[in-house]
């Protein structure tokens, strides 16, 4: 099937009081991809996810999940998506196994077709199956939330800030599990404030700002927009003042002998930058570089939208 996993067209949401959270949002999430949905706080990401989950009513537009319109086929649409919210929501007095079995019952998954232990094993919680959920660490609770969203084997999984507040090791474990699910054919939508996470995982990224989509591109194309590069040059003697050259976009001094030079890759290269420093009579002792990343692109696009 070639239809998008999620198809959103001119989606709008205006809350009582006139606040417009979504203003004609349109994009498709291709099947089989890991799709990043980024944006600053208050951009409208959570409202959009809550509309897909059936928790918020839209005021305009359409949304389809796995081909099912959320209005005309709500049961099929909900059965096609699993959502891991930012908030941890389960009964602290049930065990992880009981939590998953109850969730499976709510979705009408027959007992003989559901293996809670296999799902707990997949998220590395098999040894905590019979512990009270309230005794789990924050990271374990987050993993239980992912397992809970997958009990009915939905083809689409939405992860809303899944690694917020968890340590680096757990983040790596969750990344590995997301890749594993995606390799099995699950389409994943990821919202995150960790831009390196989106850069690492996502095939495609849409950025929302003030309720509107300001870009929707393959990740590699977004990264190609990052034209700035930084060169840090340490020279062989003290620098009385920062030199100037047409190939420098910006130059700063760090200490007595180090220059931090920003240039645009479409206008110059590192060789020209170093030549300009040497023309000032300095010998180069050390050089390090930093490529612009998704964070630079994100800030550039959202600032432009705000302007």
From TrEMBL:
Chain ranges of the ABC transporter domain: 6-235
InterPro entries on file: AAA+_ATPase (IPR003593), ABC_transporter-like_ATP-bd (IPR003439), ABC_transporter-like_CS (IPR017871), ABC_transporter_ATP-binding (IPR050763), P-loop_NTPase (IPR027417)
Keyword Nucleotide-binding in annotation: yes
Spans through the membrane: none
Protein name stated in the entry: ABC transporter ATP-binding protein
Pfam family, one: ABC_tran
GO MF annotations in UniProt: ATP binding
Keywords per UniProt: ATP-binding, Nodulation, Nucleotide-binding, Transport
Family indicated by similarity: Belongs to the ABC transporter superfamily.
Record-linked SUPFAM superfamilies: P-loop containing nucleoside triphosphate hydrolases (SSF52540)
Coiled-coil region(s): none
Originating organism: Sphingomonas canadensis
């Amino acid at each position: 099937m070639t239809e998008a996993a999620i198809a959103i067209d001119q989606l709008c949401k205006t809350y009582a009081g006139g606040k417009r959270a979504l203003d004609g949002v349109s994009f498709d999430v291709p099947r089989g991809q890991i799709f990043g949905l980024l944006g600053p706080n208050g951009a409208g990401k959570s409202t959009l996810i809550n509309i897909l989950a059936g928790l918020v009513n839209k005021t305009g537009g359409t949304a389809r999940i796995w081909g099912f319109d959320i209005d005309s086929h709500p049961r099929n649409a909900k059965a096609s998506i699993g959502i891991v919210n930012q908030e941890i929501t389960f009964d602290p007095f049930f065990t992880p196994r009981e939590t998953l079995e109850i969730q499976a019952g709510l979705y009408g998954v027959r007992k003989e077709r559901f293996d809670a232990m296999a799902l707990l094993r997949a998220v590395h919680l098999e040894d905590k199956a019979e512990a009270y959920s309230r005794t789990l660490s924050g990271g374990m609770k987050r993993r239980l939330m992912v397992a809970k969203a997958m009990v009915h084997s939905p083809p689409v999984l939405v992860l809303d800030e899944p690694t917020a507040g968890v340590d680096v090791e757990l983040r790596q474990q969750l990344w590995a599990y997301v890749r594993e699910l995606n390799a099995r054919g699950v389409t994943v939508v990821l919202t995150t404030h960790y831009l390196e996470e989106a850069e690492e995982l996502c095939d495609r990224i849409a950025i929302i700002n003030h309720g509107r989509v300001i870009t929707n591109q393959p990740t590699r194309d977004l990264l190609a927009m990052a034209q700035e590069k930084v060169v840090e040059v340490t020279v062989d003697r003290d620098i009385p003042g920062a030199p100037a050259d047409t190939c420098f976009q910006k130059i700063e001094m760090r200490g007595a002998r180090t220059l931090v030079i920003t240039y645009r890759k479409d206008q110059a290269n590192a060789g020209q930058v170093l030549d300009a420093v040497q023309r000032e009579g300095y010998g180069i002792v050390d050089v390090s570089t930093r490529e612009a990343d998704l964070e630079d692109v994100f800030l550039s696009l959202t600032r432009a939208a705000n302007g």
